[in-house]
Amino acid sequence: MRVCALVVRIWRQFLHDKRTLMLMLVAPILILTLVSLVFNGNTYKPKIGTVDVPAMVTQRLAHEDVSLVSYSSTNSALEALKTQTIDAYISWQDGRPAVVLEGSDPSKNKAILLDLQQMAEASSRGPTGIQPKITYLYGSANMSSFDNFGPVLIGFFAFFFVFLVAGISFLKERTTGTLQRLVATPIRRWEIVAGYVAGFGLFTTIQAILIAWFCVDILGMMMNGRLINLLLITLLLSITALTLGTFLSSFANSEFQMMQFIPLVIVPQVFFSGLFNIDTMAVWLRWLSKIMPLYYGADAMRNVMIRGKGFTDIVMDLAVLLAFSLVFMVLNVLTLRKYRHV
Amino acid sequence: MLGKGSREEGWGIQVSHVDRKFGKRLVLQDIHFEVKPAEIFGLLGPSGSGKTTLVKLMAGIDRPTSGTVVVGGVQMPRLDMLGKIGYMAQSDALYAELTAKENLDFFASLFGLRGRGRRRRIEEVMELVHLTDSMKKRVSTYSGGMKRRLSLAIAMLHRPRILILDEPTVGIDPALRVSIWNELRDMSQSGTTILVTTHVMDEAEKCHRLGMLRDGRLIAVGTPGELKANANVTTIEEAFLAFGGVRG
Lengths: 342, 248
Ligand SMILES: Nc1ncnc2c1ncn2[C@@H]1O[C@H](COP(=O)(O)OP(=O)(O)O)[C@@H](O)[C@H]1O
Ligand SMILES: [Mg+2]
Known about the structure:
The structure holds 2 protein chains of 2 kinds.
Chain A (H helix, E strand, L loop, with lengths): L1 H15 L1 H23 L6 E5 L3 H9 L3 E5 L2 H9 L5 E6 L2 E6 L4 H20 L19 H31 L2 H5 L6 H30 L8 H23 L5 H5 L1 H15 L7 H7 L3 H13 L5 H25 L7
Parallel strand pairs in A: 1-2, 1-3
Antiparallel strand pairs in A: 3-4
Chain B lengths: L12 E10 L2 E11 L4 E5 L6 H9 L6 E6 L2 E2 L9 E4 L11 H11 L4 H14 L15 H13 L5 E5 L7 H16 L3 E6 L2 H4 L4 E6 L2 E6 L1 H8 L4 H8 L5
Parallel strand pairs in B: 3-8, 3-9, 6-7, 7-8
Antiparallel strand pairs in B: 1-2, 1-4, 4-5, 9-10
Helix pairs in contact in B: 3-4, 7-8
The structure holds adenosine-5'-diphosphate and magnesium ion.
């Protein structure tokens, strides 16, 4: 079968090109490890200075997750704040606490204010206060932000690397004249497209298994659903990326021009894939996310990994990805007409 | 089933009143000639005269703007004819990161060759172009001449009835050039129709018949002897200039 011939050739090219092989297998793992290290770290412990604060308050503060430093005057506390030795200081004025924040990092600001709020609540509530009981429908109290956007990252890597490698490989087929040579053989146009999809598809399956295994078993990313569903999403996502990459490659004349599609095609998808809250965007922007494959991939990934949902819950997302792939495949076959008319 | 010709008869090529335009530009103009079965037909013309464009029409990867190209009794382009035609493009279209053997394997399986027959045929063609020792080397390490020879080997791989070679001997040293021409002669004797383009005049002498192409027009067709006699000159080069309206 001619499709098989193409698959074998693509695999042999992969095996000869160790760098690309490493890029596709090792790079995602490396980046995911880094990201998990960055976002799984302990929550930030604010450093707060105190100036003449009553002992009772300092005790309460010590209950929260902060480190306290005592200063003799507001001036010395202010100096410490300027050199960023502390993140905020509390002084006592007219029987009320006054807080000055360093303020340049919103996440630190939030952490300090939260601590102070909790302290204030604790002191007003007294021993008999009502403590709400909190349960989580999905996720858990100790779910990290890495658990939250990890699924998006897996989808992103499935998309990005295949898009680039398949696109460039198809582009090279065109620029080195082998495509012209290929169409002088009895291979059909759809067989060329099918061969690419099968060859790269097989390879990305391996990539997907490796990334999924590494994220779940080594990095301990939250995984409440079934692995097979995760792999299915990754596979469909990378076939979408593959067919889009090969299609767009016919509008590029060099590898560099292929790279220019990254800010145009890849980066916007990241913004709309749920890394940022879509619901706060303008309505027309939200509509834009509906034409982005990664949006559906990430949605399905989160449903499986965080919410533990099954096949029937992600089937719509999968169907959309499949539709994307089919459309791109047909476009691929049509653009190949440029190289042979039959 | 596929064509009317049989192996014994061999296949011919009929090009009838072919024009090929790129945009508004007329690159081939009213080309009309015939390649007879089992002959070696040479297309001679300076660079830019339209040889490659014409050859692509016969190889079935391009379509004339007007006129017809018939190969083995079938009007081109036709997908099912591509398996009967061997085509060597002017620029080497090889997968540089693969070895020669892997390149051959790939094209052989596209043409449906398999198993022991395929292995034997690959060895045969590589011997023919003197590359047996470099079979396992990556094509990226090949010299220009070696790539040319590998392209030729690939074009002959599936024993095509029609062999179309676009400037096959560029960059190949004289000794090997002689042996390749001997092989082409053998193939034509056993029934293969061969079409070669060249801009090297002494190579033109080796063809059974010649077509002279200039600025997209066929200015003369005939055996080398006829062409020289008609122009009343002693070399093909002079004949070309004479037919082109330039008296040397
Ligand atoms: N795809 C194309 N688009 C536009 N012009 C072309 C194309 N292919 C060839 N040409 C033009 O046609 C002319 C003949 O080219 P070609 O057939 O390659 O000549 P040769 O093979 O004899 O050197 C050249 O002037 C070339 O620029
Ligand atoms: Mg040419």
